[in-house]
């Protein structure tokens, strides 16, 4: 089965890429002082990681395509065949400033359907995975299905500042919620919702590689993923993103976004 | 030396208290389903942890006083003698909702001067410590002194929603900054500044136990700790809090808060 082979190799490559990033961070700690140097190193790591995947994919699956942030893949507007959707380092500012709270994100789409999703929080040591129809996992432990009936008043929400500006009604939603959190990495904010650490995450502008894996993993535990207006989120198109547990998604849509 | 004895015992008790909280979280995972039960368990853990410290302190240092969130200590308005300033679980909502991103916070004040500070991120496995004049540490590794000349435009800032409402000029500051982060636990937000993961943290309303340890640790690496208007923060009084690296503190004060 090609998906099994993909899964096996994707895990190997993610582990290797994570190790390389981890070692690069050690270098930053030891050698690189100036902010400009740190920024360069990050850009280099971003590119090197994507190039690593591009070469591996071309070697092992020459018929597959890569949709990646750094442009080593192709211009892709359709999801025919098998497409690897990769963000080599999601949360670049965190990578530079915090040396944590970033992730490698990889989603595998086959004829437009998300089959496998991986988000690897390298420094946090959390490896999120889902296979369509077979559940989601963190470090091989099953992630429980999300509660269906949560309410906004009990919910932590993640709404970034761009979304506050683009959708002013989010301000009232934040007031009605239990609290606001912001972590600065879309993939990990998706995983906060998938693991129940937050009930909703709204972002103003995400790209395919930001959401390719997160959507697969979040939906596998019952999260609802749409645009802010409730319409379908087509992952090849940039735009706003709204992921939440079912009850909070319905409540936010009904009371704030319609 | 009494401070050495205090340090030795404080570490023992923090470790034991952390272990108990960790085991309680396992119980939550296993047994407790309903939110109401989870809330009860948290309240119980808060109280049990503070009571544990109250009893230990009374036994070993009967002349010391305890200033704690749960009221097992005394009504304290002055810092004469030795005062243990304790928050048994800072970040209670995170404790309930996320089972991470909370901390035990302990500051030791002698005649009003902060001598020892401890913040224990139990689930994250990070133990922050400072002794006045001898530097700050995380898991026994020295925390570097903060850069003096950072600028707001390159800075991540942590400004909670209550502070956004109380100080509307923070909104312009957030726009000028590189990004906004929110973690939901004052002690860990202090430590984000102390370790350079953010350059400023502004909160509208903190209590002595929220800041007792954080102030000691942050100041030891060169962070500036004041009220939002730049005046001295007396830790026995509730109120707003503004901790930042030196350059960003000066810039925010000059351009936004004066």
From TrEMBL, chains A, B:
Signal peptide: none annotated. It comes from Listeria grandensis FSL F6-0971. Pfam families: Inositol_P (PF00459). Transmembrane segments: none annotated. Mg(2+) 1 binds at residues 69, 87, 89, 210. The lineage of its organism: Bacteria, Bacillati, Bacillota, Bacilli, Bacillales. Mg(2+) 2 binds at residue 90. One of its GO terms (biological process) is signal transduction. InterPro entries: Inositol_monophosphatase-like. GO terms for molecular function: inositol monophosphate 1-phosphatase activity; metal ion binding. Keywords: Hydrolase, Magnesium, Metal-binding. This is Inositol monophosphatase. Its cofactor is Mg(2+).
């Amino acid at each position: 089965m090609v998906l099994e082979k993909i899964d096996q190799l994707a895990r190997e490559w993610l582990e290797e890429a994570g190790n390389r990033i981890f070692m690069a961070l050690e270098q930053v700690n030891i050698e690189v002082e100036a902010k400009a140097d740190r920024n360069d190193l990050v850009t280099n790591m971003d590119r090197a990681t994507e190039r690593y995947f591009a070469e591996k994919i071309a070697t092992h699956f020459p018929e597959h395509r890569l949709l990646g942030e750094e442009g080593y893949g192709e211009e892709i507007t359709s999801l025919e065949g098998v497409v690897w959707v990769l963000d080599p380092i999601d949360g670049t500012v965190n990578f530079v400033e915090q040396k944590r709270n970033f992730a490698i994100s990889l989603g595998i789409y086959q004829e437009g359907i998300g089959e496998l999703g991986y988000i690897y929080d390298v420094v946090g040591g959390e490896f999120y995975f889902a296979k369509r129809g077979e559940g989601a996992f963190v470090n091989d432990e099953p992630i429980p299905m999300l509660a269906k009936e949560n309410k906004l008043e009990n919910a932590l929400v993640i709404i970034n500042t761009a979304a506050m500006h683009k959708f002013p009604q989010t301000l009232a939603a934040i007031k009605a919620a239990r609290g606001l959190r912001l972590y600065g990495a879309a993939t990990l904010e998706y995983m906060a919702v998938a693991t129940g650490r937050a009930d909703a995450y709204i972002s103003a502008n995400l790209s395919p590689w930001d959401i390719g894996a997160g959507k697969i993993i979040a939906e596998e535990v019952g999260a609802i993923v749409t645009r802010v207006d409730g319409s379908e989120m087509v992952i090849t198109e940039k735009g706003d993103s709204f992921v939440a547990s079912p009850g909070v998604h319905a409540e936010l849509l009904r009371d704030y976004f319609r």
